Structures are given as structure tokens and as C-alpha cells.
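dude i think i finally got it to work??
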Amino acid sequence: VYLLFGFAEWSRPQNHAEITQLVARANTFAELAQPAGIVLDVEPHVLPGWQADTETYSRDFVDMLEKVRDQITTNIPLFATIPFWYDTVLVQRDAETKPLHEWVLESVDGINVMDYRDTEAGANGLTFHASQELEAANENGNLVVVNVETNCNLMDSITFCEEGEAAMQTELSAFITNNNGAQSLMGVGIHDYAAYQLLPP
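look at this
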């Protein structure tokens, strides 16, 4: 069981104190309950200003992750949830430019990759979209959980709602086989439990 915190507005500088204070409180809880980790599902790309100033929003997001990391006083690992396409977002910090997913990996112990595609074929494949994250995590010693989507009313290529559980399990098994040598691969995840229960066979 992980502690999950999620609110996109926390990525903005004026709200950093809110999430760092929350994580500071979580330290006491973690000492008693011993959760497996803390997961931050803070997605700056959903905010209205992201498109107009992607780099600033990205830098602020990484700054937030670093502040949260500095608040953790226990051995509990910190994970961040990111979409697979963060590897296409170039960000300059401290006179260095590299993809956003690499900045994130330097700030946390692991990442949850929202690898929301429902086919292993070609450019839509789970392996294709998670390759950069797994490679960077292997180099940094991070962990990666690759996640699929099961909610309905989304683009067909994003979710397994239409294909069903058997098709999803086939794709996840193929993904695990394809990435068997990746030391960073911690496992796979399914979003979300309520939708997963409703999947056709």
C-alpha cells in the first residue's frame, strides 16, 4: 500500500508549501504504518498555462519534487506519476538541457509511467513508449512501473475498455517479456480498479 497524493496545482510555486507540509506530516504516519512508498500524481500538463509556458511549468514541477524529497525523513521511497511523452519535453535547468523525464528521475526514487496504449504493434506499443523511461531509469538506478488504462469513454487506442481483460493481459505479458532484462522495471499497473472490474473477459 502506497500513500498517494495528487493535485495538479501543487506544481505551481505558490502551492509548493502545501504539498511539502503534507509530506512532512506523512513522515510520522509512515513511521507507524510503514507504507511501501509515497506516490505524487501531480500533473502540471493539465493546467491551463502549460501549453503557453511548458518549460517554466516543467521546471516548477521538478522544483516541487526536489522540495518534497527533502521533506522525507524516513526510508520511504518517493515515486512520481508521469505520462510517457515527458521524454519529448526538453527543459533547461542550471544551464543544462535534457528531457523532462530525466529531470524527474533525478528527483525521485521511481516513476509510474502512464503508458496508455492498448496495442503492442508499431508506434502505439507499450514497449515503444516506455523505452526511454526504462533506459534512463536503468542508468540512474530508479524503479519504473508501467501502467495501462481501462476506463471507458476515451480514445480506443488509449484504453483496454473495448478489448477486454484477456487482450490486456496478453499485451502486458508481451511487454514484460520484451523488457525482461530491464533492471529498472518494477512491474505493471492498471488504472483503475473500478474500471478494471468492469472489463469484458
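Strands lie at 2-5, 37-40, 78-83, 90-93, 96-99, 110-114, 143-149, 185-191.
im so relieved honestly
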